[in-house]
Each structure stands twice: as structure tokens, then as C-alpha cells.
Write a structure and sequence with these properties.
446 residues; mainly alpha; globular; transmembrane; transmembrane helix; Na/solute_symporter; Sodium:solute symporter; Na/Glc_symporter_sf
Length: 446
Amino acid sequence: MDIIDWQWLLIIASSVLLFVLSPLAKTTDQFFKAVHKRKAPNALVLTGSLIISWIFAKSITNAANLGLSFGIVGGVAYAGYYLSFAVAGLLIYKIRTVGGFKSIHEFLTSKFGKGAMALFSILIAIRLFNEVWSNTMVIGSYFGDIGSSAYYKAIIVFTALTLAYAIKGGLSSSIFTDVIQMVLFSILLLVILWKIFSVESFTVSDVTSSGTWSFELGLNLFFAAIIQSFSYPFHDPVLTDRAFISSPKVTRKSFLWASLLGAICIILFSIIGVYAQTQGFTGQAAVQVGKAFGVIILLVINFIMITSAASTLDSTFSSFSKLLAVDLGMVKDLTFGRVSMATIAILGTLPIFLNAEILSATTISGTMVIGLTPIFLFWKMKVPKISFYLSIITGLVFGFLLVFNVFPEALIFTEGKYADLLWVNIWGIFSCNILYFIPRWLKSNQ
């Protein structure tokens, strides 16, 4: 058997096993809220689910590549996004306990009206749509060149197998399989790190001394990630759905632990890229390191990609079905929930057969949603409804300025890669906050 045959075996065997083990949802509470034997997930289960649902195939590929480009500074910079969990955990705790709200949608409808809730729903629906193709593309690339029949076949089979167990149990399946996938991820990551550090010429000091702590060599991204962490989590229903299924205290504890442990996982995975840097490798860091260590380690790395992509994909399916059935109140029954999952699986896969320009045009970036920052950070403050739209639209405008590379260079005060990302976010956050509060100030001065 060659490596591709082994990869097929891993995908099929792991998916069939997860399908067999997944609980069958017989009630809407089991399907949409992950209630099992009348109990919500405990802190350990919820923490594991949060971490693995965010350590998706694309993110660990990015972590390894940033380690290759910037050393350990790149890994730390990318791990900055995991502040999102702490921000969401603490703010949603207050929204639930002080505000008494049972979902993000209820909060937005109550404060800003149905129009605001509808606009927010469009943004997160696009986010979920992006999650499907961005993760399955990574899997496809491990089976063949982009555009090859092997590439497309792997994507279709992987998506269908993941959909099968997601449909069986909804959010219950997603969280149950997340725990298994988190354990697998941890074991496989330790195997890779053990192999890397078993090389005599590579030590911990090589990791700690790799990279330079400067803006142009990683810190631009780090500070951009910290800024985005105050808005980024709220447009990700995979994360926010998990913030309302357990008790507020269990949820807050789980989110804080996920913030710390998730960041550690990303930094550890970036060490693969640091090792690739010391060896002078180029290209995809994880792939090159896997090839250098032989078939077994390459399969281990590929299996990490498979498990992390599957965990994000099943979470995406369950979040989309909950968005339609529960949050938007369409039809709250199991059949509708399962049909919704199949729908997003098909719609999310279609863009893969189109060109790259169409894919980038459908992406809602982290910068585009910075307008959510004042909405959630100052959730308790009373403002006119127009404040929501001013902040959201301003964030979208700054996002498009970055996408089309038309942000004025005179407003960028650092050098190097990601400098534009950092300063678009700094000026964007400032503008969103000012425009959010202007209607309140005008009203109070009348």
C-alpha cells in the first residue's frame, strides 16, 4: 500500500468508527443543544470540544507555516487569536447572567431589532459556508494536486462521511466526537514533537531562540490577532453555540481553559515549522517535515489534519442547522435540522469546483467583523439602533479596504508582512467605536 491508500483507509475507518460511536439524536434538545441523559456537557467535555473545533485543518497548517516564516514568534502571534475564547467566555457569561439572554440572536433582537439580527445571521451564514470549503480543500490537497480528480474525490468522500455522523446526532454527535478527536490530536501531536526533538541537532533552545520579536517579523500579526479577538469570536457560531448549552459557570470556566490550552496547542504545532526553518525547508511546513521523517510521521500529520478538519466540519453542520431551526425559528424539528446539514454540505462544497477568485470573494475576514467589538464589549450600554448598523458597515468597509489593498500607506506605521492588517484593524476599531457612540452622544445632547 502506498501513502494515498493509507490515507484513504484512515479517512474511511475513522469516519465509520465515529458514525458507529456517535449518539443518535431522538429529540430536538439532543440534536440542537447536545443534551445527553438530561445533562448538558461538563467543563472537561466542553473545553475539549471548544479547542478541537477551533484547531481546524487550515489553522494548524497556518501555524506550521508561520513557524517556518517567523520562528516561534509566528506561532505565538497566531495563538493570539485564542484570546477570543476568554473574551467570549467572560462577555457571554455576563450577557447570560446579568442580561438573562439565552442566545446571541435573542440579545441582538432585544437590543437592536429584527433587522440587526437578520444582518448578523447573514454574516455568520457566510462564515459557516466558508468553513466547509476552506477545511475540505486542505484535506483534498493531501490526496492530489488542486483540480485533479483525486483532489475532488477526496473532498466529496470526506464531506459525505463527516455529514453522515453529524446528521445522526446533530450537536450531540459533534461534541461527543470532538472529545475523541481532541484526545487523538493530543496523542498525535506528542508523537510528532517527540520525533522532532529526538533529532540530536534540534533542541528546545533552538525553538526559544528562533525568530525575532519585532513588528516586521511576527508582532504585526500578534497585535492584529489581539485586536480582532474582541470581535472575531462573535461571528463564529461554532464557538458561540457552545457558550449557551452548559451552565454559565461551567461555560466561563471551559472558555478560559480553552483560551490557554488552545494557544498552547497552536504554539506547539508551530514548532513543526520552526524545525522546518532550521532544516532549510520551503513550501508547506507540515508536509515537508512529514516527508523528511518518512511514511509513518507523514501519516500521523495527515491524520491530525483529517481529525481537525472533521471536528470543524461537523460543528459547522450542526451550527448551520441550529441557526435556521432555532435562532431564526424556521422549523424546529429533526428532519429540518438534518436537511439543513445536507444543504450546507452541498452549498459549501460547490465553490471548490470554481476558481480561486470566487472563493476569496465569498470570504468574510476577521477584519470585516471588527464592527462587532463595541456591540458586545459595551453590551449593557443603551444606544440607538442605528449604532449597530454604523459599526457593522464601518467594519465591512475597512475589511474591503484590506482585501482590495487600497488602504492609505500613510496610515501604516510599521514595516513588514501583516503591517497593513494591523493598521487597518487599529484604525477600523477606532472608527467603529466612534461611530457606534455618536448617535448616543447626539441623542443625549438634544
